[in-house]
Design a protein that fits this description.
alpha+beta, 7-stranded mixed sheet
Amino acid sequence: MSGLTIRPYAAGDAPVLGQVYHRAVHEGAAGHYDADQRRAWSPAPPDDAEWEAKLERVDCVVAERDGAAVGFMSMDMGAGHLELAFVLPAERRRGTADALYAVLEGRARAAGLSGLTVDASALAERFFARRGWSVASRELAERHGVLIPRARMEKRLSAGQAA
């Protein structure tokens, strides 16, 4: 993980994280979702006040490699819901998502949460399953008139259990 740093979200991060999100959807998820689904999921990189507010209202951590943002994850600690989990395609299998996830699960444990939920894409489902998450249900999310499959997953947290 040479050159990788995990830091808190900061004012001004929203535009670059919108680019990370968009590229992760369009390039990284290409093997799991067709072009129409990816366009509906992310028609353009988000870069507006709503996107910024979404990132600011949760516990968001950013991964930087050699000073450039390469991924991020966010969790609503009040609800125990992991909201966003995206890394650039080039960061897959480099430990970036692992490092981001470890920080957020550690914070959830420190906050005394007993369990977590996530609405996982087909791509992210394997990542979470390897970390002890299980599928609670499957659903189709509607975005811009297109149905996108995802899995509602959950993980029980117990005292002393490692992330």
